[in-house]
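[recover] target loaded
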């Protein structure tokens, strides 16, 4: 059974780069047809799709994050990483990684379907 576990620093200062890791167990990140998405929920807002990396390595980003986000994968470690540059307090929230058969803005709405798997999320606070 696939399990996803997000990890990160918890607290980041404004203007710094946020680095998060999603460690996947029980399932290879190179398995055909699956996409590995990053989503976040900031206070008072709905779930927001950030970007994704495909099983074959292509990356996709929301226009809102295209200039600041970078998603990579570490195949030997079976991990997905997210870097978000120039963070501000508005980036405070819970960050999730999710496995799905799709990528894009529809991913948050598919959270409870059978083929989607989400991690528990990791809290990020941006504050000086």
């Amino acid at each position: 059974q696939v399990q996803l576990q997000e990890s990160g620093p918890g607290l980041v200062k404004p203007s710094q780069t946020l680095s998060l890791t999603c460690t996947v167990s029980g399932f290879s990140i190179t398995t055909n047809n699956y996409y590995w998405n990053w989503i976040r929920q900031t206070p008072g807002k709905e779930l927001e799709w950030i970007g994704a990396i495909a099983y074959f390595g292509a990356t996709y980003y929301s226009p809102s994050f295209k200039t600041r986000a970078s998603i990579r994968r570490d195949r030997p470690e079976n991990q997905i990483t997210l870097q978000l540059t120039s963070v501000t307090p508005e980036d405070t929230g819970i960050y999730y990684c999710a496995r799905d058969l799709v990528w894009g803005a529809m991913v948050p709405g598919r959270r409870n379907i059978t083929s989607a798997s989400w991690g528990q999320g990791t809290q990020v606070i941006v504050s000086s």
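[recover] notes: The chain has a mean pLDDT of 96.
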